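Feature request disguised as a bug: please show the residue count (838) next to B box-type domain-containing protein in the output. Example input:
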Amino acid sequence: MSDSFMTIFDEAYKLRKNYIEELDQPRTIASPYAQQEYILTHRYKDSPNTFLCQDLGKNSMHFKVIPCKNYSEVKLGVKKLTKILGQCQSNAILENDLFDVLDEGKWFLIMVTPTIKAVSLAQFSEVMHKTGLQISKEYCVGIMLRLISLVDEIQQQDSELNCIFPNSVYICKSNAGAPLFTIEDQAFSLKISATKKHTLLGIKNTLQNLYIEDNNDLWGISMCIYSLCGSVLLNSLPSMMNLCIEDRMAATPLKHRDPALERIFRMAQENNRKIFTHKYLEVWRGFCDKNWELIEKSDLNDLEVLHSGLLFSNSSIKTLVVHKWLNLWNSFHNVYIYLNENDLFLSFIEECLKMDWTERRDLLESFFKMLKQKPKDSVFKEILCGLGILGLVYTTVSLDPHNQAFYSFVKDYMSENTLTLMQVLYDSGVITKTLDLAKSSKTDKSFIRDTMSYYGPHSPKLIEQVYGMELFSPVIIIQGLVDIPHYHKMDKLDQILELNLQILSKKYRNEEMQDVLKNTLDLITEILFLPSLIQRNHLIGKCSTHEIQEIFELSKNPFLYYCKECAVPLCSPCLANTVHKSHDVYNLLYMTPHFRCNCNDFHNQVEFKPADFAFSKSIGRFHFLPSNSCPVPESILNKFTSKSDMVITTMEHLVKEWSNVGTGLAAYYEVKINKAGKYENIVIGILGADIYYHGVNGNFIVNNKLACKAPRFGSYDTVGIGILRNSKAFITYNGLLCSNLVECEANQELKIEVSLYGDGCEVELKLRSFLFQSAKYGIETFQKASSKDIFEKILRTMIKSFRKLLKFKNERLEEIKERFKNILCKIQKQDLANKLKS
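Example output, currently without the count:
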């Protein structure tokens, strides 16, 4: 914006010089009073009575000629000019010489002033409108404050200048006048020109449409404000002379919404003298002078002027304004309502995220309390992520992680969101400290209970620690194990089963034992059946919930959308094949109360063939090419960490011999995201097919067009992207297929492309042994002998517990027992099922 001001000024000054034309021949005019001669060399084309001249000392001067009707008019002009110059003093463009001339019976008043590098507000405004450039709000306010101060000083003497107008107020590129501001070490000041013929004699000029019958200084200030902030050119406004005040206001709308500036602007139009003592002026001066004491005086009644401060472009000023907003801690709800109603809340949050919080850590709790006021829907969470909220989380965990407002924010933000925030908290050591505090702090204890399942691969160990501390009942502990995302369960299966067995082996009251058995049953049901059931149905494009015979096995679907228009959760196949696909939807992701697809439509599913997704049996070895680095040979982990933007591709093509590709997969790879970085901005794609899956918003882009929305992804997620032999592109999310297969144009030179934006990203690239299609069914889930042994012990321990509870028969216990028996039969454990019967 500072560049814009300089550009506009220079263009206006250049435009002013373009109006100068050389006289056919110089003309010399002598001053009878100053014993001086002036040689006129040039004239202004738009002002035929204004010339450029040189005095005897070769100094460049402006030579202004005002025709007068008679000598009385000459004396009137001299009197007015003398009065104005006396009042304005150094703030006016002073004359070097003033004299009158009688030529051929006509009187002329001559004023000679020094040439200065300056442009009028009218000229400045004209260039603004022609170029479409804008200047910073602080420059507009600074000019307005200077004019109001000048007029206030004059009016305290019961006088009027009547020379404040857009074509008589000049911005000077020097410090010769009333100081305004400094831009790039260049001082700017303000001067008043009293040489306008309308000012001295009331003669019409180029802005005659702006004058009113009872012209006054405040009306002139309002027109100066309009020249900088108005929506149309000054000479395009209607004649103000015959309009009432209401019509004048209606004819002069400001360009941008700024309630404080609007209020002062209208007070000036009304010639309201209360303007000089209005509190907004003092607060604005605090902004411009970066004076915290003046800003601090504002309160809840001054939200309009604080609103104005947010529109300034100077970062130091905006930081002070944000500090003041956050200091209104006892009125956050009212502040939020104001910001939201004026579409300022996101701008406010954005400015907060730019602050250096190390100097004002005391305001962190205020910030999170303010953030609490805004309902955190999926769109707002996505916006927060894009603004860099995770960067502030890093700052908060290093400065003040254990305040209640921050805990509350984390719970709100993680609901139906990615797990990146949880990864940041865990890696930074916050959870370790929170766990230490949980025994004596209800806030910390509640936080652990609500979040312990959502730390990715760390959750099993964390829950084991929590169990050892006896913070919660065994039922809550097992429920915590159930809530761990299924692919993290499978990764730490032995650890989870061991803890479950340890809990089962203890003695409990009858009612509590029933709850322990019920939650254990939920856990083993999900381990045995959920991954395979969901994976298979996604693979063939079928809704799991519609399969009545299998619904008892389904505790939750980890890949659900939510249709905002219909208020129902939907699985990927139902979304792809119903009217919901044209509705506004978002992904539920983690920590959601919705577990199943609620689609009631009986629709024809577009069924896929699992054979279409068959992997190639042989694949060569690859070399990765990280940007700004050397080739890296493929290894077991293929781990990459970014310190700045990084793009990773391969030296080799994903498909070496297209003739060897049958009807299945042509190309596919996965990315396991250990850390998503401060902006969660990771993109996976395939070069040569122009397909990309964006983590920050879940967009699946094909040929630069949005093909469909998929889940956003972040830390602890594994995502994949591939192309079928029939040139249909697809993506996977934590092992599950997104049911949108999209036509693409793939050439025969396909390569991976993974883009990590910003620092702090850590990923593992997988070109084989994928999560996609890896889930087993039933007892095959336990691929390790150790897992099978522990699982067998769990089943036998459960049977013993059921038999002990036989004499306490009740309807709920019978339902749990029947579920358990069905599972035993389904995994071909008939011998154990028989023991349960007896």
